[in-house]
Amino acid sequence: MLFRVCIVLLISLFSAVSVRAQVGEPDADKALEPVAEWVKLTPEEYIYRWRATAVDNMEVYGIPASITMAQAILESGFGNGYLARVANNHFCIKCKKSWTGRTITHADDRPDDCFRVYDSVEESFEDHANFLSTGQRYEFLFAYDTDDYKSWAKGLKQAGYATAPDYAERLIGVVERYNLQLLDKKNGIQLYDEYLAKELGVNVDALAESSEVAPKEEAVAAEVNTNTEATEADVEYLNIKTAYSEQGVDPNNYRVTINSHRGYNVYRVNGTFYIIANEGDTFESLGELFELSSKLLRRFNDLKGDVQPTQGDIIYIEPKMMNWSGEEMAHIVTEGQTMRDIAQMYGIRLKALERMNKAYKAKELVAGQSLRLR
Please, what's the largest Cα pairwise distance for the chain? Predict the structure, then answer.
């Protein structure tokens, strides 16, 4: 009896500290080439590279950063698993009916399972947060505190995120093996980096340098407009349906008053709720009214630091979407518009809009340019 107990404990310990990607490798003659930005990473490099993204998603969505990182590690094998390498899919998220993006077929529970393909690792992390926060079967998880990683791990197994019978134990083992619970605390990134330096003797500066995300190679594709202005040929080739190019977006056509709350009309655009700032409003005062932190409100609106709203500003009170859900494919820039202006106009996250329009990301927009909305 004692011998059997020891064997069970050894197996449990092994599953807690040994991390392999959940989806196996295909036959050599069927394997695809890795994405251009994939680089083999050590566990420390992988955690260091994506820890801030996990913390950001914790602050916005309420998913413990430790759980996000543990799932990414377990599902992708520190980013070295097959789906991570060829599809930027670090959470083994399958297509489901709601997915309209690119896909890849790969053997898992079935020989022809469909998995999501992402343009970047950041997009995979973002979609993972959306996947959990919008899925009905995961709703009960958000009653748990963000530092209760054990309840989250058990809840993910209960909700059926993975079929492995010991999935919860594996997640908890990864969290504790790599001290990821530090990320769930206030100043979690600082605490984790101090742990690396003081407890493990890791040179954090060197790790930061080696873990920098290399700029992705710009793909030369027909659908990407790399000119400073949209030409008639570009528009004709793409068959772009522009979104009210002369007047900007018509508020009467797609903004809907939903309700009122403490003196503010609440509107919705692109499936996301927002209000219009009044004179004298601050993110602190709005945060109290809508029971959100000022930091979270700034994040929802792609702002940093101590910036405050001005009268008439659109203020989103929940996370914006990754792309535009309307029929229009593009927006024609008007004089003086910035990328953030357009992101606010359509209820799209600034980073997502920039990813869709890589050629314009670091440039000042020029009137007449055509920006993709999805």
Answer: 79
Smallest CA-to-CA distance from 25 within 74, 73, 76 is with 76
Tokens 């963000």: give the residue: 146
Q: Does 255 have pLDDT greater than 60?
A: no
In the numeric block, the tokens 């009122």 are attached to 260
Token duo for residue 324: 């535009």
Using DSSP's 3-state secondary structure scheme, residue 265 falls into strand
User: What pTM value is reported for the model?
Assistant: 0.58
Q: Which two tokens stand for residue 228?
A: 């400073």
Q: Is residue 169 exposed (0-12), middle (13-18) or buried (19+ Cβ within 10 Å)?
A: middle
* Cβ 150 vs Cβ 141: under 8 Å: no
Rounded distance, CA 319 to CA 210, Å? 31
Using the 8-state DSSP alphabet, how is residue 279 labeled? Answer: T
> How many whole angstroms separate alpha carbon 103 and alpha carbon 363?
31
Strand partners, 259: 266
Structural domains in the chain, CATH included, are 13-210 (1.10.530.10), 232-372 (3.10.350.10)
Q: At what angle do helices 149-159 and 167-177 cross, to 10 degrees?
A: 150
Q: What is the pLDDT of residue 22?
A: 65
3-state secondary structure (DSSP) of residue 205: helix
Among residues 298, 320, 52, the alpha carbon closest in space to that of 189 is found at: 52
- The position carrying tokens 């605390």 is 185
Structure tokens at 136: 């009905």
β-pair partners for 331: 371
Distance in angstroms (rounded) separating the CA atoms of residues 343 and 335: 16
* Cβ pair 137, 159 in contact under 8 A: yes
Token pair for residue 349?
A: 């996250």
Cα–Cα distance, 331 to 358 (Å, whole number): 15
Give the residue from 138, 96, 136 showing the smallest Cα distance to 116: 96
Q: What are phi and psi of 115, to 5 degrees?
A: -120, 155
Q: Please tell me the predicted confidence (pLDDT) of residue 106.
A: 73
Which residues have C-beta within 8 Å of that of residue 351, sequence separation ≥ 6? 122, 302
For Cα atoms 337, 343, 349, give the angle at the middle one, nearest 5 degrees: 150
* pLDDT tens digits for range 4-32: 434 333 334 334 445 666 666 655 445 55
